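User: Sequence recovery, please. Input:
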């Protein structure tokens, strides 16, 4: 989701100060969305808008932005109102500027943070016109239609929230009223009256704190709670508060919704490889040995996961649970299956009051962004976004793919996915910013163990009870550091900007202290129950392009790395996942073989989306991968 902000200056005199304040708000809001930037300025009854499909940093350094700002600020003399938006794309390409914000219609100009999942239904029901496929445009078209029918803005807002499924924090200006309105149904909105003449709002408390510090201001910062809204007069800053009824999330029956799968008849078919007679791991799995009965060494050493239990989890959370409904923990929310369910568990079953946070490093899927909004809106949970530098991340991934293709070593495939590890850094930083003591990750179940990741780095280690990366012994960590370092030195194609990011990723994962709570170390993970709750209670969106198994569907790079592993080695992460399910007694070996045959189908739609985001020729790269010598016999 995006970042929005607003400013009202009732004096409107010192335009140099105003320019600096707008610049500060853009700088502080940019980490929430870098795919498009825009803002509106209203003064003397006139509204002007400037928006571009670029990051805020690129826009504010441009000559066009400076010329626009100077021209408008010189012309205006009265009170000034500003709405700003830093976009993280969910619906509608940023290359079509009518999808970008602010969205300006005849009677309303607005900015929206969130995702409205049923916007197409609303569009059809009310016969709303639209230029594109943006949920935000439909939102403001709905407002425009009702304003034209003489309905008051506060009534429209209540009606709107009765209709929507999803998340919406709004900032709006009305051409027929000298007022700004702000509202939220999931809590990601803060405001402040910094003196008698200046009002500001933003998506995060931290933004307003730093804004005030930068401009030597001091004023209380207030959170707008889910279901709250107010209008504020542009001349007097007089506020009129009201609440809109937050409607319970309705469920629908989705039993008849059948996923569609893209099956490629020409995909590698290593079914002839000898496999463990107990699980389904192949004989060429790193360091794997079989006994006389054909049982692999991992199965022989395997110990079922020992969950610490719900009672222990409840006692642990008791130390942090707030008594007054204030936030009491931070939860990593990717929009994937497990974190979405984890948010439900913390909020509904254990009575916690989490703040969600998400690190969008470029490859977060649109479905995942939709799911974050659905969960936040349904559970009244604030979500804090951090976005990576997309251009830099894309270049890093391209460079590392080229490096891998020059010297195909499966141990270096982790370099392709190292960019997402900064999420651990934000798990620490945002927790500190919010004054919280607990960060929760919705992982920790043993099915995620993948010994081959370090096996291809020359390390023979059987993982027991799903250890954290931080728990690896120092000998293992040093071995990994040496392996990555030597491979990088020997391959000039790895000599790029990503060296710094990969070193930081290693630090965040293996060195920086891991004092997080891993939910599924305590709470038993039940795939059937997870999927039932998410589909029936939240209409969680599965990604059918990704496949039947929704594990790690939230990140487009997963389809790519599994294509590489399966093409070159004859197995993928899914073979590990299903083998662990067999060992835990969750499915039979025959069922694991059947499901993995589906899991390992090539997902061309996901691969194409990955190549589009990263910026390379998919067919060219796939041909090179197919030409890599196989690590199994045909």
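Assistant: Recovered sequence (634 residues):
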């Amino acid at each position: 989701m995006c970042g929005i902000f607003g400013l009202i200056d009732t004096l409107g005199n010192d335009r140099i100060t105003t320019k600096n304040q707008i610049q500060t708000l853009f700088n502080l809001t940019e980490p929430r969305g870098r795919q498009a930037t825009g803002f509106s300025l209203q003064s003397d009854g006139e509204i002007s808008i400037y928006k571009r499909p670029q990051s805020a940093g690129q826009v504010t350094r441009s000559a066009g932005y400076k010329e626009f700002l100077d021209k408008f600020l010189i012309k205006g003399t009265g009170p000034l109102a500003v709405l700003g938006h830093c976009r993280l794309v969910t619906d509608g390409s940023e290359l079509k500027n009518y999808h970008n914000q602010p969205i300006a219609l005849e009677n309303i100009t607005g900015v929206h943070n969130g995702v409205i999942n049923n916007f197409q239904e609303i569009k059809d029901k009310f016969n709303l016109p639209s230029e594109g496929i943006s949920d935000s445009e439909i939102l403001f078209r709905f407002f425009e239609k009702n304003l034209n029918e003489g309905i008051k803005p506060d009534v429209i807002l209540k009606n709107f929230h009765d209709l929507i499924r999803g998340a919406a924090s709004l900032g709006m200006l009305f051409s027929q009223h000298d007022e700004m309105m702000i509202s939220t149904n999931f809590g990601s909105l803060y405001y402040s009256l910094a003196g008698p003449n200046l009002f500001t709002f933003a998506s995060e408390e931290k933004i307003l704190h730093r804004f005030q510090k930068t401009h030597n201001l001091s004023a209380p910062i207030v959170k707008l709670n889910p279901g709250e809204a107010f209008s504020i007069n542009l001349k007097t800053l007089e506020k009129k508060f009201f609440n809109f009824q937050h409607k319970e999330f309705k469920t629908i029956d989705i039993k008849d919704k059948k996923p569609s799968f893209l099956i490629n008849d020409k995909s590698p078919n290593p079914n002839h490889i000898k496999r463990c007679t107990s699980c389904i791991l192949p004989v060429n799995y790193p360091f794997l040995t079989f006994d006389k009965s054909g049982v692999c060494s991992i199965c022989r050493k395997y110990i079922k996961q020992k969950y610490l239990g719900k009672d222990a989890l409840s006692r642990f959370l008791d130390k942090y649970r707030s008594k007054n409904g204030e936030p009491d923990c931070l939860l990593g929310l990717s929009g994937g299956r497990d974190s979405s369910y984890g948010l439900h568990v913390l909020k509904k079953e254990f009575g916690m009051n989490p703040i969600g946070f998400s690190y969008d490093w470029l490859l977060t899927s649109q479905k995942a962004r939709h799911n974050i909004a659905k969960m936040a809106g349904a559970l009244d949970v604030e979500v804090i976004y951090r976005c990576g530098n997309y251009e830099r991340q894309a270049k890093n991934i391209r460079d590392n793919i080229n490096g891998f293709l020059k010297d195909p070593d499966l141990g270096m495939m982790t370099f392709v996915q190292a960019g997402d590890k900064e999420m651990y850094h934000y798990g620490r930083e945002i927790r500190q910013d919010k004054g919280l003591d607990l960060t929760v990750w919705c992982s920790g179940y043993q099915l995620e163990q993948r010994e081959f990741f370090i096996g291809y780095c020359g390390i023979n280690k059987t993982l027991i009870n799903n250890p954290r990366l931080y728990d690896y012994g120092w000998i293992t960590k040093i071995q990994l550091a040496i392996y990555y370092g030597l491979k990088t030195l020997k391959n000039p194609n790895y000599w790029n900007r990503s060296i710094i990011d990969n070193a930081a990723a290693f630090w965040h994962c293996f060195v920086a202290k891991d004092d997080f709570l891993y939910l599924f170390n305590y709470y038993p993970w039940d795939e059937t129950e997870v999927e039932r709750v998410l589909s029936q209670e939240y209409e969680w969106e599965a990604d059918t392009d990704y496949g039947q198994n929704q594990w790690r569907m939230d990140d487009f790079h997963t389809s790519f790395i599994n294509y590489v592993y399966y093409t070159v080695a004859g197995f993928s992460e899914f073979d590990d996942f299903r083998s662990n399910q067999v060992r835990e007694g969750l499915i039979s070996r025959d069922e694991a073989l059947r499901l993995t045959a589906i899991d390992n189908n090539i997902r061309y739609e996901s691969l194409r989306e990955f190549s589009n985001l990263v910026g390379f020729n998919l067919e060219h790269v796939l041909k090179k991968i197919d030409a890599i010598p196989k690590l199994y016999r045909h």
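The mean pLDDT is 88.
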